[in-house]
Protein 1
Amino acid sequence: MTSHGFTLTAQGPFDFADVLRFVGQWPAASTIPSDGRVLRFAYCAEHDWLPIGVSVSGVPGGVAVETSRPAGPAIRHEIARIFSLDVDGRGFEKVGRGDPVLEELRLRSPGLRPVGFWTPWEAACWAVIVQRSSMHVAAKIKRRIAERFGARVVVDDVEHPVFPPPVSLAEADGMGLPAQKEEWIRGLARAALDGVLTAEYLRSVPAEAALADLKGLAGVGPFSAGLILIRGAGAPDAFPGDEPRLFALLREAYGLPEDAAPRDYAKLADGWRPFRSWASFLFRASTYQE
């Protein structure tokens, strides 16, 4: 691809090797196989919904990025968001020191920050596709949708299907999903085109308001809303209202009772402000590292 390069510098700890290890075990990541030193992917940039190929490698204190088309401020900000490099992470160490359980987890991968979906739109579609399915089956379906409805981008001499932009799925059928799920995805596409299902909007309002807006979309429940806001929009300080897998991890780590209510988990997470998303991510990521 024709390369347009720039660098992104982290404020606070960051280790790109930790990112690569996590992404390598994350079925939802639509990445191009690499040599273990470079992360390659392609997506439709949110600010114009046009496809772009991205190649990312680690440099001291940040990442070096090459893109298949010129990367103005909007694209640079999007890629920074994907790797949580748009957030000053220096305060997360202080949060960890105030919680011995979290600190032990943080010290295992001190440079790991939340890694997100390329866009909230793609995160929302994943949340629908994976419902009542395994992550590996959902990943295959998501790729088939990309191959049928998306463009193809060459990244470092490898052609990669790009998950389609909202306009391509707003009226689409034949996605290989149950009719109800396809209708939900068409609705999500309209919400993205209206500017609601975008990082720009979701990061511009308080987390509680963003979660409420997301739960108002057909097919989006409490778990999906948290996924979209935290892993799609990259909101650093949000806590899902209902996520059984995360709650189970917290029960085990903190010795909470089996009948603990959602408010008990929320109270626990209050001690992680303003990095509730980051702390939750470390608990989830720990299951990939075991």
Note: The first strand starts at residue 4 and ends at 9.
Protein 2
Amino acid sequence: MLVVVGALVVIVAVVGGFVLSHGHLAALWQPYELLIIGGGALGAFLSANPSKIVKASIQDAIGLIKGPKYKKQDYVDLLSLLYDIFSVARKEGLLALESHIESPEESPIFTKYPRLIREHHLVDFITDCLRLMVSGSMNAHELEPLLDYELETHHHEAEAPAHAVAKMADAMPGFGIVAAVLGIVITMGSLNGGDTSAIGEHIAAALVGTFLGILLAYGFIGPLAQAMESKVKEDSKAFECVKVALIANLRGYNPKVAVEFARKSLSSQSRPSFQDLELHLKGAAA
């Protein structure tokens, strides 16, 4: 929602300042300049990126309105899920997790958390890591770099749409110059027998093209790309939380301490308090 608010502030500040300085608002309405800049940037964006990046960029931009994917209650559920898994492994052994890993949608542990079970990437990450722990005799030092590689790959793929939009923002001033040059070409063509007022209008339109390219780049598309990247980093905390918990459990910490390690890895704005998690775990146990 802050993305929308920020965009409105940019519009009000720029347009308001122009009007208050006795500018004519109609002079800024240059639809053909917008067509050149927007169409050129969109075409370059489609040419530079595969279809999955284009679709993901649209989805991520829309997702900014909804806010972070994982709320505080989701992290409470995630930590509780990890606690339940570690408790079963501690009481019955790692082999007892095999049925839960192979069919998480039918597992009584996973199905306790319907919101999380719909997050297929997160569930797959958890089950894949547990599968390594169950089927292999990997210690914490061996598993940790493997999880780091997987997280790095996940982050790279998740940030690709934001980077693509950022590159489009970098190109917007260039397309603004293209629009301005084309406006100058039109102006030069009207010098032969053209009246002064028409020449002035053409030059104004050309300058508006440069203005729009810079404004769209730094006022709208650039901040949009930055917001998309920030959201990806915030959403990736769930995966890092799982990694920390698994490594702590593999190092021999009891389930409650391993989950506390994971809780500490979360950002302060989304981290549930110790008391909230404790009450949730006691309620689930009851």
Note: The chain has a mean pLDDT of 87.
Protein 3
Amino acid sequence: MSIPFGGYASPEQIMRDRAEYARKGIARGRSVVVMQYADGILFVAPNPSKALHKISEIYDRIGFAAVGRYNEFESLRLAGIRYADINGYTFNRNDVTGRGLANLYAQHLGMIFTESIKSFEVEIVVAEVGDAPEDDQIYRITFDGSVFDEQGMAVIGGQADAVGGRLKERYSEGLPLPQALDAALAALTEPGGERPPATQIEVAVLDRGREHRKFLRLSGPRLEKLLEAAKEGQEGAQQPAEQAPVDQAQAEQAPGAAPPIAPEGDIDTGSGE
């Protein structure tokens, strides 16, 4: 290992500095949510760009999401596609798995983190949809090559801890797609803030019901219709609580019903006081 300018630094200090540098770069981006829903796996990312994607397809059942420097995670995405194509062609398409891709990315990122002067400022998720919800796989890979097998959902980049906390409050197994999208957008939106419009978000799914290629990017009228369904579901969930007092008052004033008995101290004496 070469000695940095300014004198000697211990390997521990160099690793700490690289990790801090990478974390700061990743935190400057916007968070990405990956979560299971009733029919597969949902990807949601705030992204106003129509050309630079944070969410992509890797193979038949496998999706990819990333945050950080675009040129760095794009090189990882392309490497994953080459790996999948070569192995699927040489052996069998079923031999290409999310776990294999996660291990590949972990090796690349770990080597770059320990041997290069500058570590990659990226954090990625590899997700594979199975034939049943219990077969779904979500792997989160950090800048230093660490791999985490996530259960049900994963949040990367930006204020991941805060977004993850809000998502846990709304997440449950087997959510329909509109409700899952509503939960993801609620988690990605700061308290008191406005949700981004359809043109400012990137949404895709791995739909286990599709034939062959499971990846489907949602945009345009299809996404707007889905957002409208999510909004209607949210309003419908809030309506019963708001309507309950009105319905009770109407029941108390129904024709032929006895007038309600006022509690002691609240009796109207008609004195005008």
Note: The first strand starts at residue 32 and ends at 37.
